[in-house]
Amino acid sequence: MKNISTNSPVEELRLWRKFITGDRLAFQELIVSNYRPLVQYGTRFCRDQPFIEDVIQDLFVYLWEHKEDLSDTPANVRNYLFKAFRNRILFDLKQQQRFTDLPEMDDEGGELLVPCVQDTLLHIEANTEVSQQISGLMAQLPERQREALFLKYYQDCEIQEIADIMGINRQSVSNHLQKAMTFLRHHWKKSFITPLITYLFSSLVL
């Protein structure tokens, strides 16, 4: 599954370097390119889209106001923004006591949120029965497993990138993905397993 950002990592770095020198057009393009992925990532933690959008706006305002202090060469601009956004939204949710399933909680704790990666998976197969089954199963995955799947298959992140964004080690990422894969393999009906599981997990390197 491809990253929905319209810019390549190289182009994002070019825009970043221009942005920290005060280039407003480059900054606007960074916002446009990354806004939708950040909104969708925010649904990992909160259903309130206006709140998510407020956090994103606050993040970009902060970046503009502190641009002189920012590194001119983050390893990956998208991942840098994801990590900064993750830290900010979790802090704001905790401050407002609106959080549902923060990463510090046990994988089995907290309220389950239906992830946006589910919406992407549904495009793979138009069959209504398959779509309904995927929807129900994805909703049953623990928060961190769903977050790892979102980053892996919706944002096309590597294992190390996911670890950096989520603030965990590579082995933990692999464990989350492996547990999710095992759950889906076990629960999907036999007739659906071959085309979907093969497609989804053939590129998974643990």
From TrEMBL:
Family per similarity comment: Belongs to the sigma-70 factor family. ECF subfamily.
Stated name of the protein: RNA polymerase subunit sigma-24
Domain RNA polymerase sigma-70 region: 30-98
Keywords noted in UniProt: Sigma factor, Transcription, Transcription regulation
InterPro entries noted in UniProt: RNA_pol_sigma-70-like (IPR039425), RNA_pol_sigma-70_dom (IPR014284), RNA_pol_sigma70_r2 (IPR007627), RNA_pol_sigma70_r4_t2 (IPR013249), RNA_pol_sigma_r2 (IPR013325), RNA_pol_sigma_r3/r4-like (IPR013324), WH-like_DNA-bd_sf (IPR036388)
Molecular function (Gene Ontology), one example: sigma factor activity
GO BP of this protein: DNA-templated transcription initiation
Span of domain RNA polymerase sigma factor 70 region 4 type: 132-184
NCBIfam families to which the protein is assigned, alphabetical: sigma70-ECF (TIGR02937)
